[in-house]
Amino acid sequence: MNAHPLSVKAVVLHQGRVLLLVNERDEWDLPGGRPEAGEDHRAALAREVFEETGLGVEIGALLDEHLFEVLPQRFVRIVAYGCTLAGNADIVLSDEHSAAHWLPFDQLGLSAAGRRLPAGYLGAIRQLIDQPASPSVREV
Question: How many angstroms separate the Cα of 76 from the Cα of each of 9, 33, 54, 73, 121?
Answer without folding.
Answer: 12, 11, 24, 10, 13
